[in-house]
TrEMBL record:
Source organism, top-level taxon: Bacteria
Signal peptide: none
One example of a Gene Ontology biological process annotation: L-amino acid transport
Protein name, entry field: Branched-chain amino acid transport system ATP-binding protein
Domain ABC transporter as annotated: residue spans: 2-234
Pfam families: ABC_tran
Organism of this sequence: Actinophytocola algeriensis
Keyword presence, Protease: no
Length: 234
C-alpha cells in the first residue's frame, strides 16, 4: 500500500501541493483528478522525489520513501510513467522496453519480455522496428510496458489518455484494470479525463489549488453532480 501523509511541495514561492494525504491500496486504482494546475502532476513528482517535499511523508508497505533518491525507487517497487510518453525514438521498441528493467537492477529475461508482449501484442509486432514510427497509443503502451519491466508494486501514471482516440483510451484502461486484478498492482492514475478515470478506478481524490477537496469511492464521486460540474468537467 502506498501512503501519502500531509505532503506539501512547491516551486520557489509557488505552493503547488498543500497538506495532501491519500492511500492507494494493493490491487486498486486510485484516480487523482482536478482541473489544470490543481497539483496532480506535482503530487506524482513529489511521491517519486523529482520535486522535493517541503513537509509530509510517503511510504510503500510501511517503508519510508521520502528522502530515497529517485533512481533507487524502482528497486523498492515504485514506477513512474510521466506525461508526454517519452521514448528513445532511434532505439527499437524492444530496446526501449529493456531500459525499463535498468532502474530496478534486474536483468530482463525472455519471459519478462513475453509477458509484456502478451499484454500488448502490438508491441510484439513492432518489436524490432524503431520507436519513432509508433502511434500515440502505441507509445503509451510502450512506456507502460517499460515501467512494468521493473516489476513495480506501485505504478504512478500521469495523463495516459491525453490526446488519444477514445477507443485507444478504453483499450489502455481495460488493460490497467486487468493488471490490477490479476497481478495486484497498485495504480495511482492522474487524469483530466475524469469520466473515464472514474469508470475504472476504485477510489478517487479530487485536488483543487493543491489541496484535497474530496476523496471517496469512484462510483460515489461519479454520481455527485455538484462535484462533477465544479471540479471534474463532465
Ligand atoms: P496539468 O493537468 O495542467 O498538468 P496539474 O493538476 O498536474 O495540472 P501541476 O502541473 O502539478 O498541476 O501544477 C500545480 C501548480 O504548480 C500550478 O500552479 C503550476 O502552474 C505550478 N507549476 C507546475 N510546474 C511548475 C514549475 N516547473 N515551475 C513553477 N511552477 C510550476
Amino acid at each position: 500500500m502506498l501512503t501519502v501523509d500531509n505532503l506539501s511541495a512547491g516551486y520557489g514561492p509557488v505552493p503547488a501541493l498543500d497538506d495532501v494525504s491519500l492511500t492507494a491500496g494493493h490491487g486498486e486504482i486510485t484516480a487523482v483528478l482536478g482541473a489544470n494546475g490543481a497539483g496532480k502532476t506535482t503530487l506524482l513528482r513529489t511521491i517519486s522525489g523529482l520535486v522535493r517535499a517541503r513537509s509530509g511523508t510517503v511510504s510503500l508497505d510501511g517503508r519510508p520513501l521520502t528522502g530515497v533518491s529517485t533512481e533507487d525507487l524502482p528497486a523498492l517497487g515504485l514506477a513512474h510513467v510521466p506525461e508526454g510518453r517519452g521514448v528513445l525514438a532511434e532505439l527499437t521498441v524492444e530496446e526501449n522496453l529493456r531500459l525499463g528493467a535498468l532502474g530496478s537492477r534486474r536483468k530482463t529475461t525472455a519471459a519478462d519480455l513475453r509477458r509484456i508482449y502478451d499484454l500488448f501484442p502490438v508491441l510484439a509486432e513492432r518489436g524490432t522496428g524503431l520507436a519513432h514510427v509508433l502511434s500515440g497509443g502505441e507509445r503509451q503502451m510502450l512506456v507502460i510496458g517499460r515501467a512494468l519491466l521493473s516489476r513495480p508494486k506501485v505504478l504512478l501514471l500521469d495523463e495516459p489518455s491525453l490526446g488519444l482516440a477514445p477507443k485507444v483510451v478504453v483499450q489502455i484502461f481495460e488493460l490497467l484494470r486487468g493488471l490490477v486484478r490479476d497481478d495486484g498492482l497498485t495504480v495511482v492514475l492522474v487524469e483530466q479525463n475524469a469520466r473515464s478515470a472514474l469508470s475504472i478506478a476504485d477510489h478517487g481524490v479530487v485536488l483543487n489549488l493543491g489541496k484535497v477537496v474530496v476523496r471517496d469511492d469512484a462510483a460515489t464521486l461519479a454520481a455527485d453532480d455538484g462535484l462533477r460540474h465544479a471540479y471534474l468537467g463532465f
